[in-house]
Amino acid sequence: MNFERFKNNEFFGVWIYILAINVGIFVLQVVLGNGFTLAFALTPATALTMPWTFVTAAFLHGGISHIFFNMFSLFIFAPILESKFGSKRFLILYFAGAIAGNLGMFFMLSGSAVPGLGASGAIFAVLGALAVLEPNMVVFISFFIPLPMWMAAIAWTILEVIGTFDPSSPIGHWAHLGGLFLGIAYAVYMKKKIKDLHHIIFKYL
């Protein structure tokens, strides 16, 4: 974490509001109980009759550790990406990643009556985008294995694919993969768009 960004106000952005909303909704889950959670979680078998859950499920969490690790990842990686993308593009990516993750779960587990919830699809979209924009940035897998971001993205993909073969796993592997691939695709698109814009500018200078 580059603490100079605190001084330059580069650290602060819309991601803070996203974090605050997630925490606030988690408090509501605790106070209002399962009825509230089930009304906004994504259940693949009934999702088409509750289309709002493709978005709202990304703001729900299944427990303290679930929300902690998701928000910790948001805290670490979101400021970096938002400073590169800008707030508007970051929001587009975040919500697109959340929806892509939930679509992944919906299509691959279409008959499941088990509710899915969590910001992981959006978080993995952020990680996927950073793998493209900052491929050599070092991250720690499982908190102690240092890898450059591009290698970490490959490792995450392999681990998530392996996880899909375990039907008893409570982890939303398809949501993670959906978000990760969306983040990679969006960053590749933006990188090419910026490169083309620079080419046009320099061509006419």
Compact description:
The chain has nine helices and two strands.
Q: How many separate helices?
A: 9
Write out the strand line-up for the largest beta sheet, numbering strands in chain order: 1-2
Strand proportion, as a percent range, falls in: under 5%
Shape: globular
- Which whole number gives the mean pLDDT? 89
Q: Write down the secondary-structure element order.
A: HHHHHHHEEHH
End-to-end separation:
37 Å
Q: Kindly name the structural category.
A: mainly alpha
Largest sheet: 2 strands, antiparallel
Write the layout of secondary structure elements.
Elements: H1 4-7, H2 14-32, H3 34-40, H4 53-56, H5 64-85, H6 87-108, H7 120-133, E1 138-141, E2 145-148, H8 149-163, H9 173-203
Antiparallel strand pairs: 1-2
Helix pairs in contact: 2-3, 2-5, 5-6, 5-7, 6-7, 6-9, 7-8, 7-9, 8-9
Note down, in words, how this protein is organized.
With 205 residues, this protein is mostly helical. The chain has helices at 4-7, 14-32, 34-40, 53-56, 64-85, 87-108, 120-133, 149-163, 173-203, and strands at residues 138-141, 145-148. It has a two-stranded antiparallel sheet. It starts with a helix and ends with a helix. The relative contact order is 0.13. The model is unreliable at 1-8 and 197-204 (pLDDT under 50).
